[in-house]
Description:
Blueprint (H helix, E strand, L loop, with lengths): L1 H24 L2 E2 L11 E9 L2 E6 L5 E5 L3 E5 L5 E3 L14 E6 L3 H4 L1 E8 L5 E12 L2 E12 L10 E6 L5 E6 L17 E6 L15 H5 E4 L4 E6 L5 E5 L6 E5 L36 E3 L5 E6 L12 E5 L4 E7 L5 E8 L4 E6 L5 E5 L4 E8 L3
Parallel strand pairs: 1-18
Antiparallel strand pairs: 2-25, 3-4, 4-5, 5-6, 7-8, 8-9, 9-10, 11-12, 12-13, 13-14, 15-16, 16-17, 17-18, 19-20, 20-21, 21-22, 23-24, 24-25
Amino acid sequence: MARRKAGLLFTALISALIAHGAAQAQSINAGKRPASAKTPFAVEAIARFDTPWAIAFLPDGRMLVTEKPGRIFLVGQDGRKVKLAKVPEVAASGQNGMLDIAVAPDFSTSSTIYFTSVEPAGGGRLVLSRARLREDGGNASLADTEVIWRQRPGGGGGQPGGIIAFDAQGKHLFLTVGDRMRPASAQDPDQARGKLLRLTLDGGTPSDNPHAAEGGIRAETWTAGHRNPYGLAFAPDGRLWLHEMGPRGGDELNLIEPGRNYGWPLVSNGDEYSGAPIPDHDTRPEFAAPAVYWTPVIAPAGLAFYEGPMFAQWRGSALIGGLAARALVRIGFDANGRPDEAERWKMGARIRDVAIAPDGAVWLVEDANPGRLLRLTPKAP
């Protein structure tokens, strides 16, 4: 009986490995897809910023926009900007500085926002903070700001990650942490680098995380083996998607499954910057392979799922900014939920973030100084 059970377990293991290998073989390389100069949308420049990094919409249609040097603005759809007071100091250099911003699920009652930054202390640690947005007489400021998570150990180079997403229930916060240009750390379970974390809204550790009983970074970790994740969002069907920049090739769009390891730096569909090869995903079926990858790279930044009324044909699609591609990319999903790049449009600038307004318009920021805040609406038929 024991031998029969062992045989069944061995068969199941082999079947799982074969299935993973088949899934990896089906990874789609969209890197050579052309970008179209003909767009289905009109583009309107609304405001300009010094290296804008992220957009977050408030329920009333206004937005919060971060600037990498360390500023946050409250912005109306007419472009009127109010600089927030009492914003913490950041360590701004290279890819580091003021990063993502997100509105709390209960913002309408709490006025709480979350934001990520690289702080000067600790050799440039990534931190996650929350605060209340306070408005008074046309002015705006942060109040009761507190750091609820700090990268451990501190230090590191660029590639901070720092993207925030909330689950549909509004009870958990997901946070990407890049490898900080220390690739091996993405496979070290006791370093936050190269990980996707799942936290409670106050920065604590949920008891149902995959390794919650182990404590420390291990307990916070939802997935591992990421390089430079600058896109994280839940699809309308509840699945969580993450994209990350590869090295020389191998940008990835990954379906996130708790407890999985996505392989960096042991596997990649790209090569080292020196040209030295890295084993592809299909050589290591124990690592989760990307659903879509890009060689040559697009340098993805920003990720938003479209469910608005303006672009009915895009509903259910994901929109991704391209830094190297200087483009906006639309990801479509087939009847089985499998993604592929459907369209790519030339934007003439590095696109840093993508957000959807309550009315269904698409908003972008350019990675430049000045970088424009753009509003995209359907072209008249």
